Amino acid sequence: MTETIELKRVGEGNLRAQVYQQIRLTIQHGELAPGQKLVDVDIAAQLGISRMPVRDALMQLVHEGYLVGTTRGFTLPTLTATDVADIFEVRRLLEPRAAAHAARTLDAAGLKTLAAALREAEAAAAAGDADRFFQANSAFRNCWLGAVENERLSQTIARFADHVLVVRLRTLSHQPTQAVVVAGMRAIYEAFVKRDAVAAYDCMTHFIQNAEERFMKLSPPLQHSSGEGESMSRRGKS
Amino acid sequence: MTETIELKRVGEGNLRAQVYQQIRLTIQHGELAPGQKLVDVDIAAQLGISRMPVRDALMQLVHEGYLVGTTRGFTLPTLTATDVADIFEVRRLLEPRAAAHAARTLDAAGLKTLAAALREAEAAAAAGDADRFFQANSAFRNCWLGAVENERLSQTIARFADHVLVVRLRTLSHQPTQAVVVAGMRAIYEAFVKRDAVAAYDCMTHFIQNAEERFMKLSPPLQHSSGEGESMSRRGKS
DNA sequence: TAAGTTTATAATGTATACTGTTTTGGGCTC
DNA sequence: GAGCCCAAAACAGTATACATTATAAACTTA
Fold this sequence. Notes:
The structure is a homodimer. By secondary structure, chain A is an all-alpha fold. The first copy, chain A, has 10 helices and 2 strands, in the order αααββααααααα. In chain A, a hairpin with a 2-residue loop joins strand 1 (about 70) and strand 2. Chain A folds into 2 domains: about 15-75, Arc Repressor Mutant, subunit A (Orthogonal Bundle), CATH 1.10.10.10; about 80-220, GntR ligand-binding domain-like (Four Helix Bundle (Hemerythrin (Met), subunit A)). Chain A has helices at about 15-30, 40-45, 50-65, 80-105, 110-125, 130-145, 150-165, 165-170, 175-195, 195-220; strands spanning about 70, 75. A two-stranded antiparallel ribbon of chain A has the order 1-2. The longest helix of chain A is centred in the middle third of the chain and has 25 residues, at about 80-105. Chains A and B meet through helix 3, helix 4 and helix 7 of A and helix 3, helix 4 and helix 7 of B. Chain B binds a DNA duplex through helix 3.
């Protein structure tokens, strides 16, 4: 029951920042099981520090939507179909524009990184390695997002993309979906190479639409949460 | 120098939530001077509680972009022209769509509230009362945003709108600007009354564009922060 | 007098202890 | 055996004490 996730400190800034970074990376890598609970005192003991920095980090992750806090530890939020639809609506509005920006600002090094991530994704798809495909996908996105100069835009996108990441691990295991995703990535990449902002905008629009459709098709277990859903409810708040 | 802002506890949830709510409202009402610093221990003493809930609330506000934390207290962020432009780019992408949704979902009570806020804004503009105009403007926005069912969308908008609120207080003091804003509000309101989603979308697009133009025109003191701006930098982070 | 360096201080960062509340599990009763 | 009630544990919330750090002030020196 006590599946201890491995956390080690990374030397950057104060303890809270280090712990925050570590836990977020753990979540982003899909290394945190959906039902698993994080308890501040346990993590603190594991890292050899006090509760407070851990607690601060966990609360920050809750505020950013990465976790939900219950009276018995912190866990991943369980997204309803409505939640996923809401997230994708925001992504549909933001990501095409951001991609258009990236088409202008990506430098040679960035394009090279993107090419590598694309090849990695294709190789993973061919090998049927869902986890590798998942990582390549994240690397691809993080790279072009890093080239977007409007940091508020890129950070908002990154956050919402991360929120569906947990569910996406399931979707990306599906073979036909992988093919569609790879095709989308390649189209976006080529638009970037040509520095064609309009094409990047359109390709990204398509990409997001496809991703959402795949989600909705492959996720029947999620109920639709009509009205007062309890999926994202914080502790005692409205 | 020690301008003690008045804070009183409001009975809702735990101490952190109460303090958070209070400070955020203080900021949203423009009652916090730009240079003024908030110190957790001072606020704690004023409220008769310990530092920790106050500290948690302040840190949450930092994470949400309402404040910046230095080693000598928390203050309002000083936005550069680039910051404002970035915020408005996100708002341009999100708000028209949100307004279109509101046109569908606003009920009679909501429309009544909007009408009241609109009248209040017109009266304040006629009286030349900048502060009253500012409040009416916020009430108007909060009302229609509350009707948007996609809470992630509405909350993201609310947060970014709040970030420019501090600067907006200056802009809204300008008489010609008030006239333009009132006209925009009226157009949006009428689109809402007609339940015309397309019109609401277009009016909101216009409204945001106007707001941004006014900002850029009336804010020469803000430098453009080319490259490594220090305006939004957190403490020791990248 | 101005610039550089040291010291003092004011604030956050971290640790530990205590309190309150919810959940879970066990035992009692019907 | 099933349901209710009570008790104990497990956790977050809060309080207080101590450590650390960056800024500002003071002091020295060219």
